[in-house]
Amino acid sequence: MRNNLRELRLARGWSQGELADLVDASRQTINAIEADKYDPSLPLAYRLAALFQTPVEEVFYNPF
User: What's this model's pTM, rounded to 2 decimal places?
Assistant: First the structure.
């Protein structure tokens, strides 16, 4: 799975730590998601999508 998380975060001027605080996750988790080294849980994916006011499919997608 790939994601647009870094682009969405940077467009709002948030650090990884700030985003992590907003969705009740760790900065390390956000870093790992952005680096495509970790797929978030479904609840976390939905919290991220809700925060960015976008469908989860626009944050996370299958490149194949």
Answer: 0.93
